[in-house]
Amino acid sequence: MALALEWAARGMLITAPNPRVGCVIVKDGVVIGAGHTQPAGQAHAEIQALRDAAGRGNDVRGATAYVTLEPCSHHGRTPPCSNALVQAGLGRVVAAMGDPNPLVAGRGMAQLEAAGIAVRSGVLADAAYELNIGFFSRMRRGLPWVRLKVAASLDGKTALEDGESQWITGLEARADGHAWRARTQVILTGIGTVKADNPQLTVRGIDTPLPPRRVIVDSRLDIDLDARILQGEPCWIVAAGAPAQSGAAQTGQGAAALEGAAVREEKAAAHEKKAAALRAAGHEILYLPNARGKVDLPALMRELGRREINEVHVEAGSKLNASLVREGCVDELLVYLAPSLIGPGQGMFDLPPLARLAERRQLRFHDVARVGDDLRILARFTEPEN
Question: What is the C-alpha to C-alpha distance for residues 271 and 375, in angstroms, rounded to an integer?
């Protein structure tokens, strides 16, 4: 199973929205076939392993297949893998864990067992879950797994007071950050970061067959059409709507009211002109307003889940970071801490003051590692934030 997980990891950057799955086929203690899931619409891990075994001239009848996720039992973009395993005459199938997809959810293993194949599940399940944490999140909650990344000094500052932040962490940490970007389907930021840093938010130094989609939270559509993030692959821009327009002057309106209506209409026209220019350049605008005239962040996460996004990687400023945490949209923090002190500067989260310490948001350390001279901390909220 550990070898199957290694094969699954080979598909890290190509399988979305499908899970990353690996399979090895063993007979008489020898691996006779192996494979991992291919891009959506192509062969799953089990099919790849069967093909590999056949290509080597190996007979799989009576062999054991170790697969990192329960074989699918439904017709999706490809035929059921459970059927293929039955037809191939496997003697035993060991799965790391069950498939959370409601269309499978135990049916794959049940079909194998009904065909006389010995089955077992629950081997290295934790490792298999981590590999597909976003897929499990989307299947179980209808929401992507949201990972919020920040790089800070040891005293918690992400930039100087004037916004200078390049570079707080070292080369190794920055390269590691790109690896986390690469495994996601969406890199999300806010208009504040776009204006302050003019970032590209692309993956660099890693070949990404499926480049993450850049998503910008921009309530009023303030983005500059020449922003670097708008170059290259199209973006999704999430807004709250055009400025409120006023119709013809009502009886009794004063000059100030009329002037205000004219300004609103002018802003609305400018908004629509920019929206048209963005669409013409290939970008998509999503209007998801909340009652306060801002972007409805929980609704955004639901929409991303509907669009089959498994993992979201956030790189934003302290205001959007705080809003996402406050709205319960963040599952874990990816924090890089540099061994330096900055003093006065910009922090990680612009959260409101607490009345009591008991109100603080609790997390647990999931993983702590040294990356170059910096410290990488993966911390998860102790209770579901959604």
Answer: 43
Beta bridge partners of 379: 333, 365
Question: Which listed residue (6, 46, 259, 265) is catalytic?
Answer: 46
Q: Is 161 a catalytic residue?
A: no
Contact 16, 35 (CB under 8 A): no
Question: Which tokens sit at 94?
Answer: 């060991």
For residues 379 and 348, the answer to whether their CB atoms sit within 8 Å is no
Question: Which stretches does DSSP call E strand in the chain?
Answer: 22-27, 30-36, 64-67, 92-95, 118-121, 145-153, 157-159, 186-190, 213-217, 236-239, 284-287, 311-314, 332-338, 346-347, 363-371, 374-381
CB 261, CB 309: distance < 8 Å: no
For residue 14, the SS3 value is coil
Mind listing the pLDDT tens digit of every residue in the chain (386 residues)? Answer: 999 999 999 999 999 999 999 999 999 999 999 999 999 889 999 999 999 999 999 999 999 999 999 998 766 667 788 889 999 999 999 999 998 888 878 888 999 999 999 999 999 999 999 999 999 999 999 999 999 999 999 999 999 988 888 889 999 999 999 999 999 999 999 999 999 999 999 999 999 999 999 999 999 999 999 999 999 999 999 999 876 643 333 444 566 555 577 777 888 888 899 999 999 999 999 999 999 999 999 999 999 999 999 999 999 999 999 999 999 999 999 999 999 999 999 999 999 999 999 999 999 999 999 999 999 999 999 864 44
Closest by CA to 147, choosing from 133, 168, 157, is 133
From the list 76, 79, 81, 17, the residue with the least C-alpha distance to 49 is 81
User: Which amino acid does the sequence have at 332?
Assistant: E
Helix, strand, coil share of the chain (percent; to 5): 30, 25, 45
Distance of CA 277 to the CA centre of its chain: 28
Q: What type of residue sits at position 106?
A: G
Decide if 100 contacts 108 (C-beta within 8 A). Answer: no
Buried b (16+ CB within 10 A) or exposed e, 42-64: ebbbbbbbbebbeeeebebeebb
